[in-house]
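Input/output pair, single chain:
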Amino acid sequence: MALHAGKILRRLLLIVAYVATGSAAAVDPQALARLNSGVDWLAKGDADRAIAEFNEALRIDPQLAAAYIQRGNAWKKKGDHDWAITDYDKAVELNPKDVAAYLSRAAAWEAKGNIDRAIADCSNALRADPQSAAAFNSRGTLLKKRGNLDLAIADFGEAIRIAPSDGAAYNSRGSAWAGKGNREKAMADYNAAIRFNPGDAAAYANRCSAWGGSGDFDRAIADCSEAIRLDPHYALAYTNRGNAWSDKGDKEQAMADYKEALRVDPKNALAYFNRGTAWLNKGDADRATLDYNEAIRLSPRFAVAYLSRGNAWTKKGYYDWAIADYNEAVRLSPKYAEAYHARGTARSLKGDHGAAADFDEALRLNPQKTETLIWRFFARAREKGAAEAASQLQAAAPAAAGDKWPMPVIDVLLGRGDPALLLKAAESPSANVRQTQRCEADYYLGAYRVLMNDPGEARPLLERAQQECPKGMTAIFAAVREELKRLEN
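Output:
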């Protein structure tokens, strides 16, 4: 016969109480009754009545460690993490081997933003019990949050060694592999997570993201749909499915999913960010900016949101505002090559002769970014002249990746490629890729003709780019506008 969840929890608490005191006889029955009553109130969502019951349990038996843990949980539910930590401290003092107390305190430290102390408490839990899969899993999650992906993967591996059927550990390790860009290992772990726990919505949502990253948008949509079926209030699943719809080219379905993500979780910064990007891709920089504003309000350290809002400002021609946002993205993430590239673009479009320095830094951080080589060429040509720009490009070009697009553009800029064949080089079996590369070919060749003082050839190329480029290509949209202005002056 199935047990009610409350009964199971009360039995667990009884065991905890026995362990904490060393014997069943040492636990006051009235204190246990109050403890169980408090647990019931907490399960119903009434933290205040739960605290009152835990207070009474501790009045009867001040040595009941489980009551301190549960009262700490109630304080945490109310958002009072300092009081929660005080109670967890007392639980640890009463029972230094209590893994649950350490892990609960770790969660409170995490909520306060102190990841180092949270990790330390997970390590304390492992000293108390070196075979605690939960402690390895919790520490791995914190290490992943701090960006220590290799250490996180090692901890998740230990959790799996101890509990080989723990689907959550596989899911967590999969997300760490994804963070390292190893989609194959991430997919293998997500598959294992789902095999061991077919009801885990998070594993389906993560595998959805992995399928999307590999270009299999139909499988991505199917996995996110399954996550939503399992948990209709799972905002991340709607957000990931929206991303898959967007990448597949269905902007309306994407927008609908982002809207639903915000309905179930109005404080979801990622959903605002993704909806903002969807608006920007539809050409609506104003609505995009509003959503990016909200994403930043909810998550002030969201560097990518600052970058994207800067892109929206760039599209509107508000270069000073764009540069301010790129500055903040760089401050938050000093190794963010894309932010340096974007700032260089805005500075170049504004006519700032220091723009090439930002492209230099972007290339130092990511030497393989061919696109940055091209943008630096134009910035340097305006600052120092085409000959010096070409010399610098010639020296850097071997670091670019083979003959893949946009390498044919570099060949044209260096005078070793036929400009008339550039559009042919931009062809692709994918309609979306073809449109993007044709846009780039028209802009780069048009800008090159402007640089070579050939307005007759430049204008039709730039005008075609203005008409046919995807609306989300904000930098090229703004750059075409500025090149056409140069032709008018």
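Residues 431-451 form the longest helix (21 residues). Residues 408-489 form one domain.
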